[in-house]
Structures are given as structure tokens and as C-alpha cells.
Design goal:
The complex is a heterodimer. By secondary structure, chain A is mainly alpha-helical. Chain A is built from 15 helices and four strands. In chain A, the strands form two sheets. In chain A, strands 1-4 form a two-stranded antiparallel sheet. In chain A, strands 2-3 form a two-stranded antiparallel ribbon. In chain B, strand 4 and strand 5 form a beta hairpin. Chain B has a single domain, classed as P-loop containing nucleotide triphosphate hydrolases (Rossmann fold, 3-Layer(aba) Sandwich), CATH 3.40.50. Classes of the chains: A mainly alpha, B alpha/beta.
Amino acid sequence: MRWWTFLLACSAVAAAVFFAACWLANDYYFFAGYTVLQFVVLATAWNILGGYCGYVNFGSAAFFAVGAYTTVFFHKALPLPIPALVLLAGIASGLIGLGTGYLTLRLRGAFFSIATLALAVVLQTLVVNWNYVGGSRGAYVVRPNEVALIGSYVQYLFLIMLALAVGALAVARAIERSRLGFGFATIRDDELAAEASGVPTLKLKLIATTLSGALMGMAGAPFPYYIGYLEPASAFGLPYAVNAIAMPMIGGTTSWVGPLIGALLLGTLQQVATVTISSAVNLLLVGLLLVGFVIVAPKGIVGLVQPYWGRKRKRAEPP
Amino acid sequence: MTAQLLEVDGLGKRFGGFVALDGVDLSIAPGERVGLIGPNGSGKSTLVNCLCGTLANETGSVRFDGRDLSGLVAHQRTRLGMARSFQLPRPFPSMTVGDNLRIPLLYAVNARPGAAHLSVAETRERCAELLGLVGLAGRVHDYPRDLTQVDMRKLELARAMASDPKLLIADEAMAGLSHSEVSDIVALLVRLNERGITVILIEHIMRAVMSFSQRLVVLVSGKKIADGRPDEVIRDAEVERAYLGQ
């Protein structure tokens, strides 16, 4: 399937999802669906660096928060429509990704992960002390009730996140089947051998951190409008970092399908648990599932299914 | 005097207080088959790493194909036409044998300035040709984990060859192989040389080195102590002392 066919197919599915939610005529579905889709974007973004290149990022929440705080900043400084904010947030967190990559990618394995964790702490401290965006008090972002043509605001946000999810999946899938994707895989497998084969590893890793960071920031951009009140503790919250890692790990990290499955499964499960049990059970569920999968199926759900299904399919040819 | 393909001048490298390479000079003409020997820890692999850009040398210079290589990282040197195989095979385990060969085709051959990009069909053809050359034809869809040790070495050499090099540095391509497997690899290296590729062979197995090399270079404690015709070099008193003691 060519990438634009894939994009069309994804868009068709997305449209079906949207109209199904409209048909149910309950704003709660949009409200819960937004969170699940947000995790689809986050998990897919994490997987570009973590799954394809093998560099584990513990600082996903920081990139997400950069996106969210870009919105808060512009909400006060220069009100813009959300799609523009998404773009700006993508640029801001993409640049932070590039900078982080440049400073930390000479580190490998656990050291890189620790550095990303440190990045989250540094950025959170910065935001806490930045009065303009609310500091530790947080910031209120008052959203309109209605949007022309679409209806309620939460439907509008849902639609934006749906488009972002489709975009993220299309990007991830395009990378996977390109020269870039092959290059990423050599970095995951053996960096020394990759260099010896002519792969410019540093450049590729920078592309990965930038793309991954930008997508995470984009996922965070509509968040202040969704939640209405943003404070550092929630924007930099542990759930984002944990989910961004757990979802691809549970779904499978080697292809774009894995993070999608992981995010849909875990995201929905968390929403159900929030309503039926309590919101505190969320992370416990994620933790238990992650431990279970790491032991029983280290290659995730995709890894479990692949032997029965993938063998018959011939690998895609690179360009 | 004809232009040399590789000119190493006063190459030096230390690891803390340990001098791994101490002013090594070496020049290699296009099309030559050179053997590089030396006891364990004599600096052979460090020399390879400095030539290929995996390690940065502290003193001296490396010129390759008329170009100074200082400041160039490993992948840039590969693109200039210097390929290496690793002492312990380092295939990309998550990729098939065919995809392992595609990487240098995509990233070294296609990235050369002025080179025309290979089409998908050309890439596939080139993979098949390389696998045929090393005797792995028909294994294009296998994974490296399915290969035997000797086939893994062949894959390693094929991947180095895929970058279409002028110079191939084979770092102990035969360690741990049986008698007939060693002969296999030597024959393969000679075939590659006949295609016009200059080869440096780093090896402990003297039978292989002696049958392959037109010239033999000996490193001991980071210094070059001999450089000349193989039969003369192994009779050299200093070389005998280094290997057998006094």
C-alpha cells in the first residue's frame, strides 16, 4: 500500500470513528476518546526513537508539557486557532528534541534514558518558576463552548486529536518502509556496524529525536483546552512517561501497528477502569500489564501474532 | 613512483598511559594484498579502528586515495571507499541477510557524490550478485541467527563488499574456523582482490597469511618492526624474537 492510500484508509477509519461517536450522541465518548487518541500519538512518537532506534526516552512527559505550555503561552500572548498552536508546539518541542539529542546522543543505553529523565526535571523546574505561564499555581485556559460547523468544543478537540493520530501513524509507517527506517533499525541493532556500512548514525538519531519530540509536543498542544486548567504537576505527570513507554512495549515496538494496538488497548482499559473502579487504579493496571508482557511476550502483541501471520508476507522493499 | 592508495604517516594512539600505536608508517599501493600480523595486544585492531575512523588517532595522519582523512568519521570514510569487516561478526540481527547487504548499498553507494541511485531492482540484483560471490546464494531471506559461523564471516565480508570499496580491511576474518573453511575464505579474498580491490588481511593463522599476502607487515607493541616480502619477513630476527621469545 502506498503511503497516500494508507493515509486515505486511515482517514476513512477516523471518519467512521468520529461519526460513530456522533451517533452515540454522548459527549463522554469524545471526552474519553480524546485521551485514548492522545496516547496513540504519544506512543507512536515514542516508538520512533524508542522502538525504531532503540533509544529509550523516559522524558516523554517533558515533550508533552512543552507542547501544552506552548499553548498556554500563546493563549496569553497571541490567541491563535488550535491547528496553528499544534504546529507551533511541534516546532518548539521538535527543537527541544533536537537540542536534547545533540547533547545526549553520545550517551548510550541507560545513560541516555537517565539524561532524558533529567531533561524532564529541568524543564519542570523552569516552568514552575516561570510566572507568565502560571508558575506552580497553574494557568486557566478558558475555552469556548461551541465551534462553528462542528458543534461542542470537545468534539472539535477530539477531531483534532484524531487528525494528529492519523498523521502520526502515517509518518511512522512511512519511516518504517523508507531508507530512513532501515537506517534506524541498524542503529538499534549495532551502531558500530552501521557506521561501517556508511550510515550517518548521529544525523539519523537527531532526525529521530526531533521527529519524536515534535509529535509528542503536538499531542500536548490541545491539552490545556481539553483540561481547562494546566499545572506543572499534571503536564509533567508520571502517567505520560509511563504510558508512552508501556503502550509500545505491550503492543510491539518494531512496527507502527504495535503502539496503536497498545495505546488503544491500554488507553481504553484505563478509561474503563477510571469509570468503573477508580482513577488511581490506572497506573497500577499499566504497571502490571507491562511486567506481564515483558516476561511473557517481550516482543509485544505484534511479536505474538507475527509468527502466524507475518511469515507469509514478503518484506517490503526499500526505495 | 605510483600514487599510493593508503598512506599512513606517524600514526599514534594512547589509551591513558598505554601506548597502543607508536608512530606507525604504512603505505599501500592500489591492488596490493597486504598481510598484517603481530602478537595479541600489538595494536592491529587499534590500527584498523584508527584507519576506519572508529577511533581518533592522536598523532600522525592517514591519507586515502589522495585525501586527508583527519576529522572524518567512520561512515564518511566508508563512503570514500574504505570498508572493513569486524573481528567478531556484527550483522544486523533483526534484518534478513539480503537487508544486511542493502544497508551499505542504500547508505554508502547511493550516498556517493555523483553516483546514480540504484533502483530497487538493481539493489536486489547487486545483493544476489554479492551473495553469489561469497557463496551464500539462496540465503537472502534467512536471518543471521540461522547462519553458521563461517557463513556469518562470509556475510560480514559481503556486507563490507557491498559498499563497493577500493580498500577492504579484513580483521581476523578466519579466527576459529576449520582448515577447509580458512581455505574457503582465503580463496574468497583472492577473488575479491582479482576484482581490483586492495585488501589488508589481519590474521593470526600463518598458513592463511602466507598464502594470501604479497607483502607482510608486522606490528609489535604498537610499532612496525618489519615490512616486506612474506618469506623474508618471517625469517627476520626481530620478528622471530617477538613471536618466539629469545
